[in-house]
Amino acid sequence: MGLISPCRSIKDKLGRTIFLRPYEEGDFKGLTKMYGEFEPKGKAMGLPPAQEENRHQWMMGIVEEWFNIVAILESRIVGHAALDRPVTGNAREFMIFVHQDYQNKGIGQALTSSMLDTAKVMDCERVWVVVENLNRIAITVFKKTGFSFASVPDIERLMVAHP
Length: 163
Ligand SMILES: CC(C)(COP(=O)(O)OP(=O)(O)OC[C@H]1O[C@@H](n2cnc3c(N)ncnc32)[C@H](O)[C@@H]1OP(=O)(O)O)[C@@H](O)C(=O)NCCC(=O)NCCS
Hints:
- The protein is of the alpha+beta class and 163 residues long.
- It has a single domain, classed as 3-Layer(aba) Sandwich (Aminopeptidase).
- It is built from four helices and eight strands.
- It has helices at 28-37, 52-65, 107-121, 136-144, and strands spanning 8-11, 17-22, 67-73, 76-83, 91-98, 126-132, 148-149, 156-161.
- Strands 1-2-3-4-5-6-8-7 form an eight-stranded mixed beta sheet, sandwiched between helices.
- The longest helix has 15 residues, at 107-121.
- The chain is globular.
């Protein structure tokens, strides 16, 4: 599945080159470092898990079962997005994390766009994400990349994109 993902390099808002590419096995250590440092733990619907062993198990599940893209700055993983396997009607769940030191630089939007491009190549009909209503930065990113609300206003919102 990794072969169908577009590799891209972008300039972030500070002019730094960020390389986006599919996750490779050798990335696990770098991803562990990113999630180990990520704060606040549990920021997005309880993820990433605060407890190290739970975090490890969660990451293992994601890299083994989901399609993953990493964002790299000077060999360091600074962002990670993932797309689940299709469930009903070829819909896939999306998730994304950008290390807090690199947020607000355009990396989240680039990762999300890349994943939607990939979903299109996969003939995916719907990409969905559940986001907390207070997570305004995530909602901004999702709206700017083509997601719209698919649930009534509540503490959590379902957002959907049609790649
Ligand atoms: C959500 C997340 C992935 C966004 O990544 P990012 O790299 O910071 O996003 P970008 O820099 O590409 O874009 C952020 C946008 O939100 C805007 N923004 C920042 N703070 C905001 C706020 N409080 N309210 C509304 N918009 C805000 C920025 O101005 C920017 O928009 P712009 O490009 O028009 O200026 C990142 O914040 C993150 O990892 N959060 C924790 C995990 C999470 O919540 N994941 C989503 C649920 S799965």
